[in-house]
Amino acid sequence: MSTPAGWEPLRKPTHRPGADAFRLSPFSRLARAHVLVAAGDALVTFALANSLFFDLDPNDARWKVFLYLALTMAPLALVAPFIGPVLDRSVGGRRWMIVAVNAGRAFVCLIMIDDLDGLLLFPEAFAVLAMGKAYAVSRSAVVPTVVRDDGELVEANSKLQLLSGLAVPLVAVPAGIAFAIAGSEGVMVLAVVAFAAATLAALRIPRTQVAEAPPTAAEAAELRGAGVRLAASAMGVVRGIVGFLTFLLLFDLRDGETWMLGLVLLLTGAGALLGSALAPALRRSFSEERMLTTLLAVAVVGGLVA
């Protein structure tokens, strides 16, 4: 229909009811990628448990584990302090880091399919672990940019942990089917698919800027404060307990039945679900410092008992 002002459509488009339900929020896009990453991590763990990685005697393999860990983590530890601030100040820098590490993990897992019984498995496995830590750091930096205010941070992180816990039992069935058909190689193929899907999902994470400018003198001093050092040290202790407990269980269960490993993974997911459900409620009643101190004590006692 022509008007003096020019051509106009016969009917003006109307907003379709329910259309907003198909629009993903920035946090939902991050959460979708995170679920796929958690699924990939669980699949890699399951595949490695039935490979040469845990078939060697722990005493004979200790020096190899230490050497490969040092060679894998040293470049990351040396370069990260310089690359991190640059990524934070660039628009979409952390998103591209998430995309890159998941694409890298998909590629390394693809190579690992033929090396599950060879010594190349060790550097490849630790490369996957190192890139997993890089993803965790980048994800933590992105979370504050996809929530509306600081008050939602605890709830957002709890939701991500909840989704991680749900991913473990969800992949247990396809992992079991793949293992029955093609062994650990079949499970590793699923891991490649999971990380590749996570890479594509990460492309939909909004391009945000974590830091617009270099830290000021006051901000740099705050980052070196006692509170941050305490939190970092506590997190290091927790990560150490989890890491040693993981290796203890996997080495101990290597001569047992496969269902035992599945039970451990299910209990791990259940613990993550419980912690994710309790965190927001505890945050409303206690300060972060009291939560940190109490839960750290519980984790240390649990580690000593184990």
Distance between the termini: 78 Å
Roughly how much helix do the residues carry, as a percent range?
over 70%
Whole-number radius of gyration? 22 Å
- Low-pLDDT windows of residues: none
The structural class is mainly alpha
Assign an overall shape: globular
Strand/helix succession: EEHHHHHHHHH
- Tell me, rounded to a whole number, the average pLDDT: 76
Helix and strand topology:
Blueprint: E1 2-3, E2 6-7, H1 26-49, H2 58-89, H3 93-112, H4 121-142, H5 153-202, H6 217-223, H7 226-252, H8 258-285, H9 288-305
Helix pairs in contact: 1-4, 1-5, 2-4, 3-4, 3-5, 5-8, 7-9
What does the model show?
The protein is mainly α. It has nine helices and two strands; from the N terminus they run ββααααααααα. It has helices at 26-49, 58-89, 93-112, 121-142, 153-202, 217-223, 226-252, 258-285, 288-305; strands at residues 2-3, 6-7. The chain has a two-stranded antiparallel sheet. Strand 1 and strand 2 (6-7) form a beta hairpin. The termini are far apart. The mean pLDDT is 76.
